[in-house]
Amino acid sequence: MKKGANEVLFGLYDDEEILIKAVKQAKADHLEIMDVYTPFPVHGLDPALGLAESRLHIAGFVYGAIGCLFGFLFMTWVFTRDWPIIFGGKPYFSAPAFIPITFELTVLFSAVGMVITFYTICGMGPGIMNPTLDDRITDDKFCIAFNANDASQETLDRLKGFFSSTGASEVQTKSI
Amino acid sequence: MSATVSTIRQPLIEGGKTYHQITEDICTPTERTPSTAWVIAFLFAVTGLAVYVFCLAWTIWNGIGTWDLNRTIGWGWDITNFVWWVGIGHAGTLISAILLLFRQKWRTGVNRAAEAMTIFAVICAGQFPLIHMGRLWLAFFIFPYPNTRGPLWVNFNSPLLWDVFAISTYFTVSLLFWYTGLVPDFATIRDRAKGIRRKAYSFLAFGWTGSAKHWQRWESLSLVLAGLATPLVLSVHTIVSFDFATSIIPGWHTTIFPPYFVAGAIFSGFAMVQTLMLLTRKVLNLKQYITLEHIESMNKVILATGSIVGVAYLTELFIAWYSGYIYEQFAFYNRVLGPYWWSYVGMMACNVISPQVFWVKKFRRSIFVTFFMSIFVNIGMWFERFVIIATTLARDYLPSSWSYYTPTWVEIGLFVGTLGLFFTLYLIFSRVAPVIAIAEVKSILKSSGDQYSGPNAAKHHATQAEAH
C-alpha cells in the first residue's frame, strides 16, 4: 500500500457473524472487497472471502530440509574431510551422534526462515508503520474495506447501500 | 461461529464479557501506574538481581575456586540450577505448542504468560553453563566458527555440545513464537495509546493491521511453529539428560533418563506456571480469564507428571537391584541412604507423595492448596537434580576420593540471584505487554464465554430476556 494514494470506503460491523454474512453478500453482489480487517482470526472468513490456503508451511518445509542437510553434511565434512578425529574409538563418520544437532538445526532453520518469510510477505517488521483505517479494528470492530479511488457517485452509493443493508454500524471514508 | 462445545464443559471466560471488555481488562494493567504490590515485588526482584550481579562479578574476578566444588564433585549447584531452570521453561512450550495441537482451549488464558516464563527461565538456565566454564569471556569457543587454529572444530559428538545447540535453538524458537503471538496484541495496545507510548507500541507491533490474509498466515505460522516446538521441547530435555545418561557413572548411565527428565520438566514447569498465574490473576485482577477451571486443568497435569516421575524413581531402584550389578546397586543404595539421604527424602516427599492430594477435586480447585503445592513441587524438583548430581558424584569408584559438598555463599547467591533475574524480567513483562493473549481469548469467547456455554448460559439468557 502506498501512503496517501488510496481512497478507502469502509464499514465497521459489531460482530463476526454479521461480518461473514456481509462478506458472502458482497461476493453474491460481485463487489470487489479490498480487504477485511478483524481483531482476531475469524474462522469461516477465508472460504467466504475466497482466500487461497497459505503456502507458508511449504516454505517452512523447504527451510527445514535445508537446515537438516546443512547440519548433517557439515558435521560429516568436518569429521571425515577437514579434521578427522577419533572420539571414543568410534568411526569418523558416526552418523547417530550427528542426529541431535541435525534435528536442532532443522527446527532452527525452519522456524527462523518461516518467521522472516511471514513478516516479509505481510510487509511487516520492526519500525514499519502500516496505515490503519480505525483504531477500534484491533479492539472489537470488524471492517470491510472497498477501494474508492476514482469511484463514481453511483458506485459509492451502491457500496453505501450495501453497508446499510448488511448491518454495518458505521460507514466512513479515509485516504491511506 | 460457535463451535460445538459440550454443555457439561465449564466456561473458560467468566463475567459475560464482550470483546471490548476483554481488551479493557487485559490492556489496563499496562496503562495505569504500577500498584504498590507491583512496586514492592519489583524492589525485591531487583535486589535479587543485584545479588546475582555481585556474585557473578565475584566468581569471575576470583575464579570458580570460590565455589565449594572439588576434585570428586565437579558439578554442584551450578548444573543443578541449570537443569532446574531449563525444566521450568518446558511448561510454557507445552502449553502453547502441544495444547495448541491438541486444540485445548483453556491454553489461551495462560499461554502468553507461560511462554514468557519459558523465555525468562531459559535465560536464567543459560547463565549457569556459561559461568561454570570459569572463563566466561571465552564462552564463544563453544560455537563452531571458522578460527585460526586450523580451523579446529568443536566436538559434534559430545552431548555437552548438543546442549549448546538444543538450548540456543529452544530459546530462539520460543522467542519467535512468543513475539509473533504478541504482535497483534501490541497492535491493540498501540491503537489505544497516545503520544510516546503510541510510538513505542507502533514499533513493537511491526505494522500489524489485522488484515484477513495476515491473520490466515499468522495462524498457519503459529500452527507450524507449534508443530516444530513440540518435538523441540521434548528433544531439549532429552539432550539435557544425555549430559548424564551418556556418561559411564553408575546412577547416571540409564536409558530411563530422557522420558523421566521430560516428565520432570513438565511437572516443575507447570508448578512454576501455577505460582505465577495465582499471583498474576490476583494482582492484575484477571480472575475471570484465569479461572478455577484453568487451575484445575494444570493441577491435573501436575498430578499426572508427578506420578510419572514417581514411577521413574521406583523403576530406577528396581532396575538397580534387578541388574545384579554391584556398582549400580551401590549408587542407588547411596542415593537413598547415603550422606545425602535428606535430599532424597525431600525429593520423594515433595515430588511423589504431596502431589497425590490432587486426586481430590476440592484440593485441585483450592487456590491455597495449589499455591503451596506449586512451591513444594519446585523445591522437590530442585532436590531431584541435586540428588542426581551431587549424590552420585560424592561416592565414585574410589573410596579414597569420596567427598562431601556444601555450597558457598557465592553459589547460593547465584541461585537466589537468578530468581531475582527471573522475577525482574517477569514483572517488567507484566507491565509492558498483555499477560493474556487478547486476540486468542476473543476467538474462544463465543464457544467458552459463560454467557454462551456452561451452567451460567441459561441464567444469562433469562436475565437478558428480562432486560428487554
What is the fold's blueprint, element by element?
The complex is a heterodimer of chains A (176) and B (468).
Chain A: E1 7-13, H1 16-28, E2 33-37, H2 45-49, H3 56-82, H4 95-121, E3 142-147, H5 153-166, E4 170-175
Antiparallel strand pairs in A: 1-3, 1-4, 2-3
Chain B: H1 19-31, H2 36-62, H3 77-101, H4 107-132, H5 159-192, H6 195-204, H7 212-245, H8 257-283, H9 292-323, H10 326-337, H11 341-353, H12 361-364, H13 367-394, H14 409-432, H15 438-448, H16 455-467
Q: Could you characterize what this model shows?
A:
The complex is a heterodimer of chains A (176) and B (468). Chain A folds into two domains: 7-52 and 129-175, Alpha-Beta Plaits (2-Layer Sandwich); 56-121, no CATH class. The model of chain A has no long low-confidence stretch (mean pLDDT 89). With 176 residues, chain A is α+β, with helices and mostly antiparallel strands. Chain A has a four-stranded antiparallel β-sheet with strand order 2-3-1-4, covered by helices on one side. Chain A has helices at 16-28, 45-49, 56-82, 95-121, 153-166; strands at residues 7-13, 33-37, 142-147, 170-175. In chain A, α3 packs antiparallel against α4 (95-121). Chain A is 49% helix and 14% strand. Chain B has one domain (19-136, 163-451). Chain B has helices spanning 19-31, 36-62, 77-101, 107-132, 159-192, 195-204, 212-245, 257-283, 292-323, 326-337, 341-353, 361-364, 367-394, 409-432, 438-448, 455-467. Chain B is globular and about 85 Å long.
Offer a quick outline of the entry.
The complex is a heterodimer of chains A (176) and B (468). With 176 residues, chain A is α+β, with helices and mostly antiparallel strands. Helix content of chain A is 49%, strand content 14%.
How many extended strands of chain A? Answer: 4
Strand order of the largest sheet of chain A: 2-3-1-4
Biggest pleated sheet of chain A: 4 strands, antiparallel
Any low-confidence stretches of chain B, pLDDT <50, length ≥5?
none
CATH architecture of the largest domain in chain A: 2-Layer Sandwich
Q: How many domains, in number, for the residues of chain B?
A: 1
* SS strand fraction of chain B: under 5%
Continuous helix count of chain B: 16
